[in-house]
From TrEMBL:
PANTHER family: NITRATE/NITRITE SENSOR PROTEIN NARX-RELATED, NITRATE_NITRITE SENSOR PROTEIN NARQ
GO biological process: phosphorelay signal transduction system
Annotated protein name in UniProt: histidine kinase
UniProt-recorded Gene Ontology molecular function terms: protein histidine kinase activity
One Pfam family from the record: 7TMR-DISM_7TM
TM stretches of this protein: 185-205, 212-228, 248-269, 281-305, 317-335, 342-363, 375-395
Alphabetical keyword list: Kinase, Membrane, Signal, Transferase, Transmembrane, Transmembrane helix, Two-component regulatory system
Family annotation (SUPFAM superfamilies): ATPase domain of HSP90 chaperone/DNA topoisomerase II/histidine kinase
Record has tRNA processing as a keyword: no
Domain of life of the native organism: Bacteria
């Protein structure tokens, strides 16, 4: 049946086959087993009936000389006999707390002179919650020690094929209330903080759609479920009638916490982009891990003790190897100076250290205390804190980067404004010079000519021709006042008219092509493009001596591309001269963080290519 599932040692976290431990205390004071004359006995089954107990042979009981029995991870149940008188000399206890909620089957008796004077129902982690003597997560027996002088307290436990830890606390009523309230407060506070962190990070995932917060939320969920099952809270409140879920939930969520943990650091270090081979290795490692875990769950749930024993032995080999591989991978990423890799190294190294402490405690190479016995919990807490610190550090780094980019963008906008203003001032000076030298001069000559010209048909024709030519020149110069023209006609129409004007004057055979949308740009970007085209065409007409040319503008997905070429005299040594006006154009494109390329040689034509992203400069 599923209730026989023993998966909390499967595939992860290094449980070893060692000796069972019995710890007896009275109101927190440790009691020496040998002095208290505590005895134990092993049986090959879990028959805990009264008849089975009465049939136990008295000479089979063995005295404790240490805190451990000589057998564990074997098909034997362990019985303990504790003389009540040896406890009464410390305190007159009122409660006996067997403080391990994960004993498969458990039954207790009070016996005197070989006769059962009080017995308790068979209970355990594999039986419904209501079978417990009190509705508590551990096994608490309300027994007044003073009523049972000279009697023995018998404990029968079934924890076969796994390590048995049996902390038995004898409490006075006041001490029991103090201990239970303190434990409830710590448990509630701990799980409450984790639940708050879970909800907060899940909210961040919903708001920001960053998988990093999703994986951390899933990791916290796994830890909450594991702690809930380990402490017996989920069994008590959520599935008290389905004890087989204890081993399933506890083992599975603990093992599966490895999945969001690895994926969290995959996202944090951006391994998919920066180290695709490592990312693919992790992907297949997790696929294999989850597959083997599924097989272990199914076979252990419906198999026998031999199958379960096989997975226990496999776990002792696989778990250290998996953790070592992931740790070495983190060290490799750190060696390659991958950002945030130090957090991965600290995280995996920490979990290995805490699990090693737990294993050393299990094999009794280090003494048992509150820290070593709960090293798994400390490891999980450490892991969660490192991941939270990594998120906080990442946020700090992103905040600093955004502030730095904001400052750079502000400086860039100021430089663009200054360069644009300088360029406009230059254009205004050029237009002023043209008005003075061309329009003013022509008007002067026209007046002089009309003063001395007879008012004949031929004279009027000359005056009309001169006025028409003057109007043509004024119309040509008016295109320099781009903001007014652009607002009235739009960028495409203005450039098209400039091209047509050049063609009508038979100056250059200029081909014009526009690809992409013709509307939707801000007036600031239209002015920038218009000024660039003006400079390019001015260079074409004044300096290139070309007979043909080509102008292309592409607007696509926020990217602006300008390309022009001609068959003119080109540039000597492909060098841009300040006098050509292209140097200021190059400076402007540089401020826009665009690309500016010229390909030219003397007497071999000229081509220019400009690209920049309009989305980054909407406030130019």
């Amino acid at each position: 049946m599923l209730r026989k599932l023993l998966l909390h040692v499967l595939l992860l976290f290094m449980c070893s086959a060692v000796q069972a431990q019995l710890n007896i205390s009275s109101d927190g004071h440790q009691i020496d087993h040998e002095t208290a004359k505590i005895q134990y006995l092993l049986t090959p089954n879990n028959d805990f009936s009264d008849a089975a107990f009465l049939n136990l042979q008295e000479d089979k009981w063995q005295n404790f000389t240490t805190t451990k029995t000589p057998d564990s991870h074997t098909p034997y149940s362990v019985w303990f006999k504790i003389p009540i008188n040896s406890l009464l000399k410390y305190n007159n206890f009122s409660f006996i707390d067997i403080h391990n909620p994960h004993i498969n089957f458990l039954k207790c008796w009070i016996v005197k002179d070989g006769k059962i004077i009080r017995k308790f129902n068979r209970t355990g982690d594999n039986l419904p919650f209501w079978t417990r003597p009190l509705p508590t997560t551990t096994f608490v027996y309300p027994i007044s020690g003073a009523l049972y002088k000279d009697a023995d307290f018998i404990i029968a436990t079934d924890k076969r094929y796994t390590k048995l830890d049996l902390p038995v606390h004898f409490y006075t009523e006041a001490q029991y209330l103090k201990e239970s309230q303190s434990e409830s407060m710590v448990t509630g506070l701990f799980i409450g903080v984790l639940f708050f962190a879970l909800m907060f990070n899940f909210y961040l995932y919903i708001s920001m759609r960053l998988n990093l917060y999703l994986w951390y939320s899933l990791y916290l969920l796994m830890i909450i479920l594991y702690l809930g099952t380990s402490m017996g809270e989920l069994f008590k409140y959520f599935y008290p009638e389905y004890p087989f879920l204890n081993d399933i939930v506890r083992s599975t969520v603990f093992a599966l916490s490895f999945v969001p943990q690895v994926n969290f650091f995959n996202e944090l270090m951006d391994l998919k982009v920066k180290m695709p081979k490592v990312y693919r290795f992790n992907y297949w490692l997790l696929i294999v891990f989850v597959t083997v875990l599924f097989v272990a769950v199914v076979t252990s749930a419906y198999g026998n003790f031999r199958v379960q024993g096989f997975w226990l032995q496999a776990n002792r080999l696989v778990s250290p190897l998996v953790m070592l591989v992931i740790l070495l991978e983190a060290v490799y990423c750190f060696y390659n100076r991958l950002k945030y890799s130090l957090f991965a190294v600290v995280s995996f190294f920490g979990i290995v250290v805490f699990m090693s402490i737990y294993v050393l405690h299990q094999v009794e190479l280090i003494p048992r205390n509150n820290f070593t016995a709960t090293a798994v919990y400390w490891g999980l807490l450490f892991e969660g804190m490192v991941m939270a610190l990594a998120l906080a550090w990442r946020f700090k780094s992103y905040k600093e980067d955004s502030e730095r980019l904001y400052v750079e963008n502000q400086l860039q906008q100021e430089n663009i404004f200054k360069e644009t203003a300088k360029y406009q001032q230059k254009e205004m000076q050029r237009m002023s010079s043209l008005l003075h030298d061309t329009v003013g001069a022509n008007l002067g000559f026209l007046r002089l000519e009309t003063d001395n010209m007879p008012l004949t048909e031929e004279g009027r024709a000359k005056i009309a021709s001169a006025i028409t030519q003057l109007g043509h020149e004024v119309r040509t110069m008016s295109h320099g006042f781009s903001p007014l023209i652009l607002q009235g006609k739009g960028l495409y129409q203005c450039i098209a008219e400039m091209v047509q004007l050049i063609l009508r004057n038979n100056q250059v055979d200029l081909q014009f092509e526009w690809l992409g949308k013709k509307e939707g740009m801000t007036i600031q970007n239209e002015i920038l493009i218009y000024r660039m085209i003006q400079e390019i065409l001015q260079n074409l007409l004044k300096h290139s001596k070309a007979t043909s040319g080509f102008l292309q503008i592409i607007i696509e997905q926020g990217l602006i591309s300008i390309y022009a070429e001609d068959n003119g005299v080109g540039l000597k040594d492909n060098t841009v001269s300040d006098g050509l006006g292209l140097k200021s154009l190059e400076n402007l494109v540089e401020l826009l963080k665009g690309s500016f390329n010229i390909d030219s040689a003397e007497n071999k034509g000229f081509s220019i290519s400009i690209e920049f992203n309009q989305a980054n400069h909407e406030k130019v």
